[in-house]
Amino acid sequence: MSAPPLIILTGAGISAESGLSTFRDPDGLWARHCIEDVATPEAFAHDPARVHAFYNARRAQLRDPAIQPNAAHHALARLVAAWPAPALLVTQNVDDLHDRAMAGPAAGSLLHMHGELGRIRCLACGTGRRWAEDLSTATPCPACRQAGGLRPDVVWFGEVPLGMERIEEALEDCGLFLSIGTSGQVYPAAGFVAALRGRARTVELNLEPSAGTHLFDAAEHGPATQVVPRFAERLLAEWT
Ligand code: OAD
After folding, report:
1. Which of 15, 17, 25, 58, when mutated, tests ligand 1's pocket best, judged by the most ligand atoms within 8 Å of its CB?
2. CA 148 from chain center: how many Å?
3. pTM of the predicted model as reported, rounded to 2 decimal places
4. Is the alpha carbon torsion for 122, 182, 174, 82 positive or negative?
5. How far is it, in rounded angstroms, from Cα 92 to Cα 104?
6. Rounded to 5 degrees, what are φ and ψ at 192?
7. Residue 23 alpha carbon to ligand 1 centre in Å
8. C-beta 56 within 6 A of ligand 1
9. SS (H, E, C) 14-77
10. Which of 74, 98, 112, 114 is catalytic?
C-alpha cells in the first residue's frame, strides 16, 4: 500500500518549548492582551502604535539567539522531507521556527496560513518584504517612502487566511491528518478535522485534549518535544 497524502496542522503549542508563549494557555498572550486591541484591522486603524508594540515585542523574540526550533520542529522537517507521498505542513504560527528547521527543498511544503512575523506589507503601495526590525508609524515604506502604512504581514481576526486554495486542494486528497499543538478554537483551521471525517485518518498530538479531541480518530497527549518525534519516527518506520 502506498503512503497517504499527509497534512500537518500546527499551532502555538509546538513552539512553546522553544520559549514562545501560546495564546490561550493560562499564561498565554490572550491572557495579557485583548484580541480587539492588537489583532484586528480595526485595532490597527484605531491605535497603530499599540499594535506595532505588540508585534515588535514578538518579532524581537525571533532575534533572540535563545529562541530556536525544538525537537518537534526538527522531527516534522524530517517527516515532510522523507514522506513518500505529497506532504503539506500548514502552520497557524507566525514565528519562523518551522522555516529554520525546514531549510532546503522541504521548505516549499510549508504554508503560513496566518502570515509571518518576519514579513511586512505596505497598505499604501501593497509591497510586501522580509523585515526583522521594529516597525513604527514613522517607518517609511522602503518602496513608496510613505510613512504610516506599514503593517505586520500577519492575518488578523476578520481577515482571510493565506493559501486557502492550496489548503483546500490538499484537504481533497488528504489521507492522513495530524493536528499538533493547537487548541482548535480558530477557524478555518479548527474545521479541517471535521471536513476530513470518514476520508482521512486524523490524529491529535497536543499537551492535553483539545476541545475538539473527540473529532479525531486517535490522540496522543504530552509535550510536543516528546510526543512529536516519537510519532514521526513511527510513521516513517511504517511508510518508508
Ligand atoms: P492556542 O494558544 O489557542 O493553543 C495552544 C495549544 O497548544 C493548547 O491546546 C495547549 O494545550 C497546547 N500546548 C501548550 N504547550 C504545549 C507543548 N509543550 N506541547 C504540545 N502542545 C502544547 O494556540 P493556537 O491553537 O495556535 O491567530 O491558536 C490559533 C490562533 O489563535 C493563532 O494562530 C492566533 C490565535 O489567536 C491569530 O492571531 C489570527
Report:
1. 25
2. 27
3. 0.98
4. positive
5. 21
6. -60, -40
7. 6
8. no
9. HHHCCCCCCCCCCCCHHHHCCHHHHCCHHHHHHCHHHHHHHHHHHHHHHHCCCCCCCHHHHHHH
10. 114
Read off the pLDDT of residues 57-90 as tens digits, 9 standing for 90 and up. Answer: 999 999 999 999 999 999 999 999 999 999 999 9
Q: How far apart are CA 166 and CA 109, in angstroms?
A: 11
Q: Is the CB of 16 under 6 A from ligand 1?
A: yes
Catalytic residue status for 98: no
The closest alpha carbon to 205, from 172, 227, 237, belongs to 227
Residue 189 C-alpha from the chain's centroid: 10
Residues linked to residue 128 through DSSP beta bridges, in sequence order = 121
* Cα(101)–Cα(111) distance, integer angstroms: 14
Tell me if 226 CB under 6 Å of ligand 1.
no
| Tens digits of residue pLDDT in 79-129 | 999 999 999 999 999 999 999 999 877 889 999 999 999 999 999 999 999
Q: What is the pLDDT of residues 146-184, one digit of tens each?
A: 999 999 999 999 999 999 999 999 999 999 999 999 999
φ, ψ of residue 122 in degrees (nearest 5): -95, 125
Does the Cβ of 25 fall within 6 Å of ligand 1? yes
